[in-house]
Fold this protein.
Amino acid sequence: MMSLLDALASSPDAASLKHLAAITELHPSTAHRILAAMTQARFVEREDAGTYRLGIRLLELGAIVKSRINLREVALPFMQELHEKIGEAINLGARRDDEIVYLERTSSGRALVRVVYLVGERAPLHLTSLGKLFLAADGPQKVREYAKRTGLPGKTPHSLTTLTALEKELDKVRRHGIAFDDEEAELGLKCVAAPIHDDEGNVVAAISVSAPADRHDPNWVAQLKQTADAVSHALGYIAGKK
């Protein structure tokens, strides 16, 4: 049955019994019997021409699985692995309206700078590397609307408090697929973030590394991207889908 499902999934159009039997190396009568049972259970749909395609029941089950996925539980093992490699705090955040909500954080255990935002707390999107990823995904018009709604309040002299400065920064984020917070939320603290995509290619969360400015390492970018991509893959994302 799984072989037949894989064969149907790899076929862009409805597939014939002969084609499916050949791909799965099943005897045609065996393939026909299994397909009949799958059709009855709505895992497969049989068309008038005697061809088969994936059925609506799989979509229903997929929606159930998706609704039960806990982003924090999926991401945490990958965050812990990255934390062990670089020894700094790893943050997981998701967007709620015009703010980032911190869902999880691994402590560096040696922070010399007080971290402003802890698990459950919120921050304006434009003040954090996590939030900039969501703004970059929004596009220019929605960014202008965000700036008008919020007024772009600042926290430090480095905060991006004008639309021109924010748009320039977001253009870099779109080009490189990575975002930085250069002491914009807290003096002495730098962060770098990478996006997490769901199965439809949407940015649903982001992971960041935060550390005192004197410990910030540009080499973290590749490791951070790899971690974010691994979480995205675990959520069903296929690179290049969107």
User: Anything to note?
Assistant: Residues 111-115 have pLDDT under 50 and may be disordered. The chain has two domains: 2-66, 70-234.
